Amino acid sequence: MNKFLTTILLLTFSLCVRTYGQILSDLTANAKEATDQLEVIYDLDVFQYFNLYDYDTELKQSVFKKTEEYQTKLAELKSAKAEMLKTTYYTSHTEAFSSDTNYDLKRKGFEIDLGWNLGMGTEGARTPKSINGFLFKALPSKQVPEPLFFGTGVNSEKLFLPMTEEAGLEIENDKKNIDVYFFFTPTGKEKTVFKFLNSDSKWYNITHNDLKADKVRIIVAHKSTGKIYLDKTYTYQPPAPKK
C-alpha cells in the first residue's frame, strides 16, 4: 500500500474516532453559556442592556425613547435578539448527583432532583421543568410527593437519566465531578403559574414569565475530562386539541 493511500486511510480513521469520541468541550465550543442577559435581549430592554441607569424614572425613559440615540441602540438590540434566536446556548445543573443518588438497576439509569416547590422566600421559587430560569417543557420530569411532607402538596421534581451500567459505575465512583448540561436555542417566552410553599407555611401562587426552548439536548458529562455519559434530545409536543 503506497504512502498516499495509507495517509488517507489514517486521516479517515482519525476523523471517525474523533466524531465517535466527542467530548464536552466539542459541544461547548459551538455554543454560548446562557446568562440572565438573554432575557434582557429578548425583552428589548435598552436601558438594562446598555446599563443606562441615569434614566431611573418613567418620565426620563419616555423622553429618551424619542431621541435618535435610543433608536440606534434599539436597532442594535433587535439585531442581537435576531442572532440570539438562532444561537445554541447551554446551562448546567451542577452537583446533580448527590451522595445518595445511585444507579437504578431495574430502570437502568439515575433519577436526579431538579428542585422542590418549598423554600425560604418566594424569590427562590423555580418554575417546574426549568433550569436556571430557562423553561424546557420537553423535559420528561415528574412531580413526586416528598415523603417528609406527604399529603401536604410539597413535591420534588425528578428527572430520569437512562444510561448503561458501565457509565453508571463510573458516575457512582466520581459523582462530584459529574454535571448535567442543557443545550438549547430560545424560541420565546411563556407565562407559568404554580404553587409554592414559603417558610412562613403559606402557599403562594407564583407567576413566572420564562425564556423557553421547545427542544433541549441533555448531556451528562465529566466536568474535567469532558467524557460524555448521556447525550439525549427531547422536543416538546403540544397536547392534541380536545375534540
Roughly how many Å is the radius of gyration?
Answer: 23 Å
Instruction: State the major sheet.
Output: 5 strands, mixed
Tally of domains: 2
Distance between the termini: 68 Å
Query: In one word, what is the shape?
Result: globular
Kindly report the spatial arrangement of strands forming the biggest sheet: 1-2-9-12-13
Q: What fraction of residues sit in β-strands?
A: 25-35%
**Class by alpha and beta content:** alpha+beta
Q: Total helix count?
A: 7
Write down the secondary-structure element order. HHEHHHHEEEEEEEHEEEEE
The tally of beta strands, per DSSP, is 13
What is the residue-mean pLDDT, rounded to a whole number? Answer: 90
Low-confidence stretches: 3-20
Secondary structure: helix percent: 25-40%
Topology:
Layout lengths: L2 H18 L3 H5 L3 E2 L3 H6 L3 H4 L8 H7 L3 H17 L4 E5 L15 E8 L1 E2 L10 E2 L2 E2 L6 E4 L9 E8 L2 H8 L5 E7 L3 E11 L4 E10 L2 E8 L5 E8 L8
Parallel strand pairs: 1-2, 4-10, 6-11
Antiparallel strand pairs: 2-9, 3-8, 5-6, 7-8, 9-12, 10-11, 12-13
Explain briefly what this protein structure is.
With 243 residues, the chain is of the alpha+beta class.
Task: Describe the protein's architecture and organization.
This protein is of the alpha+beta class. It folds into two domains: 42-84, no CATH class; 88-235, no CATH class. The protein is 27% helix and 32% strand. It is built from seven helices and 13 strands. The strands form three sheets. The chain has a five-stranded mixed sheet, covered by helices on one side. Strands 4-10-11-6-5 form a five-stranded mixed sheet. Strands 3-8-7 form a three-stranded antiparallel sheet, with no helix packed on it. The radius of gyration is 23 Å and the shape is globular. The chain starts with a helix and ends in an 8-residue tail after the last strand.
